[in-house]
Specification:
- InterPro entries: NAD(P)-bd_dom_sf (IPR036291), SDR_fam (IPR002347), TIC32 (IPR055280).
- Pfam families: adh_short.
- Belongs to the short-chain dehydrogenases/reductases (SDR) family.
- The chain has a single domain (about 1-285), classed as 3-Layer(aba) Sandwich (Rossmann fold), CATH 3.40.50.
- The chain is about 40% helix and about 15% strand.
- It contains 12 helices and 9 strands.
- α3 packs parallel to α4 (about 65-80), α6 runs parallel beside α7 (about 195-220) and α6 crosses α12.
- The longest helix has 28 residues, at about 135-160.
Length: about 325
């Protein structure tokens, strides 16, 4: 009774904490739109892909686990046989995989209206990716950074030719406030001796916000018909805490009383972090513009994988991370 009074109360939007994505999108058509959703085989990504497909979008499920994605696709098609879902393999911790995915998608000559950078890992034990990058930073930020810029020309072309506004969404977190004191540990990202799993997660989520903010600034400056936003999805019961057994048990049991499930996430996104809609933390708010050209160079270098990410530290200076690996 109490939970229904508290969590069932509708807000200004007409929806409540317990509203589902299907309820919120009822009557909305996404027909004619093409969307890529990373991490679409489970949790938030799966529900996002499922709902977009039910509303008529052509959804590309960018996933590591092909069997899990196929199971979801089969379930959606059983519910809506006309739904359009394709599965493509993508490991965001591998820059070679990101490049291969982008090349394969571009070769299909499909339009791209929506890119939802959702996949991620949280508070995992220290590990380096195949490219020698701390795994949370590689998966949550660097992989999505590269993917976005490799697909950006396709999105610009689609929005221009269709006159339909494109959308880029980075799934961030209130956890960005838990980043290291100076924001992002440039020069120490791969240093295991100072590694904190929670703070490393926070710095990757902070990078998501700064990336979206910079994209939004550039789109406005260049009059590009695309919006870029980052968001906090709220407290959701997913498998993100699978590396912390005690916390995972708590959040899957007691958490059911106060947390949303994946079906409710899109209905009640906790916060959006763009300059027009929400006031993020000081770390995310003190963005200064990136020097032009670096993102494009990072996305187009043919011989070396060079990803240059600029973010703000302390609100007054740039931090720079250069990750260079020869592709053999």
């Amino acid at each position: 009774m109490l939970s229904s009074l508290v969590f069932g109360r509708k807000g200004p939007s007409g929806f409540s904490w317990s509203s589902t994505a299907e309820e919120v999108t009822a009557g909305i058509s996404a027909a004619g739109l093409t969307a890529i959703v990373t991490g679409a085989s489970s949790g938030i990504g799966a529900e996002t892909a499922r709902t977009l497909a039910l509303r008529g979008a052509h959804v590309i499920m960018a996933v590591r686990s092909l069997p899990a994605a196929q199971a979801l696709r089969d379930a959606v098609l059983a519910q809506a046989p006309e739904a359009k879902l394709d599965i493509m393999e993508l490991d965001l911790s591998s820059m070679a995989s990101v490049r291969a995915f982008a090349s394969e998608f571009i070769a299909k000559e499909l339009p791209l209206n929506i890119l939802i950078n959702n996949a991620g890992v949280m508070a995992i034990p220290f590990a380096l990716s195949k490219d020698g990058i701390e795994m949370q930073f590689a998966t949550n930020h660097v992989g999505h950074f590269l993917l976005t810029h490799l697909l950006l020309n396709t999105m610009k072309k689609t929005s221009h030719e269709s006159n339909v506004e494109g959308r880029i969404v980075n799934v961030s977190s209130e956890g960005h406030k838990l980043a290291y004191g100076e924001g992002i540990h440039f020069g120490k990202i791969n240093n295991e001796t100072v590694y904190s799993s929670i703070r490393a997660y926070g710095q990757s989520k902070l990078a998501n916000i700064l990336h979206a903010n910079e994209l939004a600034r550039r789109f406005k400056e260049e009059s590009v018909n695309i919006t870029a936003n980052s968001l906090h999805p709220g407290a959701i019961i997913t498998n993100l805490l699978r590396y912390h057994s005690i916390l995972d048990v708590i959040h899957r049991t007691l958490g059911k009383l106060v947390l949303k499930n994946a079906q409710q996430v899109k209905a009640s996104l906790g916060s959006t972090y763009d300059s027009n809609l929400y006031e993020p933390s000081e770390k995310a708010r003190t963005l200064k513009p990136m020097p032009r050209g670096y993102a494009e160079f990072a996305a187009s270098s043919p011989d070396h994988l060079i990803i240059v990410t600029f973010v703000v530290l302390h609100g007054w200076k740039y931090g720079m991370l250069i990750l260079s690996r020869k592709i053999h």
